[in-house]
Amino acid sequence: MLDLTLPDGSVRRVSPGTTALDVARSIGPGLAKAAVGAELDGRLVDLRTPIETSGPFRLFTTKNEEAGIFLRHTAEHVLADAVQRLWPSARIDVGRRDHSEKYQYDFRFPRAFVPEDLEAIEAKMREIVKEKHKVERVEISREEARELFAGMGEELKLERLEDIPEGEPITLFRHGEFVDLCRGPHAQRVDQVGAVKLLESSGVFYRGDESRERLQRIYGTAFATRDGLDGYLADLELRRARDHRRLGPELDLFSFSRNAPGSPFFHPRGTVIYNLLVDYVQGLNRRDGFEEVRTPQILDVDLWHRSGHWDNYRESMFFTEVDERQYAVKPMNCPTHCLIYRTGLRSYRDLPIRYADFGRLHRYERSGVITGLTRVRTFCQDDAHTFCTEEQIEAEVLRPVSTILEIYRTFGFEDIRIEVSTRPEKSIGSAELWQRAEAALMGALSSRDLAFEVNEGDGAFYGPKIDFQARDALGRSWQLGTVQLDYQMPERLDLEYTASDGGARRPVMLHRAMLGSVERFLGILIEHTGGAFPVWLAPVQAVVLPVSDRFLDYGAEVTGRLSDAGVRVELDERSEKLGYKIRDAQKQKVPYMLVIGGREQEAGTVSLRLREAPEGGAADQGAVIVDELAARIAERAASKSLDL
Q: Which of 394, 420, 518, 554 lies at a C-alpha separation of 20 to 30 Å from 66?
């Protein structure tokens, strides 16, 4: 018998093979009718899947937030059904693994879907939902599945069928006449999906492989109620308004070119922000005892064989060949820092040695996953490596941990979650060393009473890591900084130091990034701030707005005085109406708008207007003396204040 522990602490004893729906029926007919899905021991399970283990158990109805995952997965199948009802010759590939927010399906279809198609598909989906079909789970043999999908002409499914390991159950999910190969989980009935919305369509390559055929993908979302959908769409509109891929070009920060896929071009204004971010971290590095180094971008592949990257990372690397020697473009700095370490004899008295490197890195990302600044092929990390003794691990781990938390507060990220990621399936080194490294990271955090969660199996291939998850202004969580503990690379690259007893020892290596990649962090920061950067980061801190051409000379004088004081200031010399100039400055997210006319010229002042009104105050600040304004901007920049 199996024991299922319910949320109230009571235990239901059931036979192996009992389904979650059976459990719901045993509790009451109302719950059985309303149930959407279940959770067993932290894992979402379909209502119809036989239960084979004991553990904590929960049932979900449409009132539970977790129900959305079951509903969106079900709506995904309704989408495919609708497309095939409208275009019977369309063939389906697969849907989405993560249904926490969206669903999607890829179709073999002769052309791109247009907005009118999406409207027709969405209408057909609503018709299917009203048919109130039950969703059935069917377990069949591999041969039966081959015969079924071959008969349906679903050639893509036959290839996907081969991806399922031998011995693993092969399951279909069916509603009405529609059936597809799927693991689930799904809702109990299609009419539990209360509201659907198709969001967009795009072309994608089969399996993300540019050499394979191009399919057409449709994205959508679904909720139990119309109110839930409306709330999501309103939130989506907020996200679109803050999307760095839109704001970047609008604010003239960066652009992309098909001549360099996945590689951003930073414009002058974007470069100002980029350099300020680097300068900020460089200052913290100096304070924390890190010395900056520069290392080559192209290195012999032999180094990457020895470091372990060839076996564990080469699919994400670029390669070239010169003089009949094969080279790799550097995807990370750690092996090059080991080479610097090896250039001299090291003693325990020299440790810790801390190197920081802002060198350019290149990693191959498939074209289908490149996303603005947050997923690129070339980038710069605020990368650093520490070589230390085992006795120094705790202090050298806590040093960057403290600085990372300081950085995130500076940028206004208040909700920070810390995770310790443990040994992944693909890794190098002995289990004993991994356990020692994991215990060292957890012990360091515990010594400062820093709460953390354990993220099983998500460490780097060479060692466990501390990851920092920051929640942005829209409530989304981003993985930013990391501190990684590595016993493997010093061993593989033969690093040594002379211990106090005269013997040779291996140093321990710590990998550290605080912003992560500067490109990705900037993309996240644009969305966190909506492009309204704090004063110290704003590429243009102030703009001078003459009310007419008669005051251009005074405008030039004010601009010069502020520029001499270190303010990044521009003069708007256009012969446009003042209202237009103000709106344009607001669109460009300039923190300070300085209006000047006859009264200001006579008094030697500016009329100050802020980008947004402070809490309990007004955007219009009235007349301000130029030198006082310069001092105010300097103070805000020096303190890295988030206030105007």
A: 420
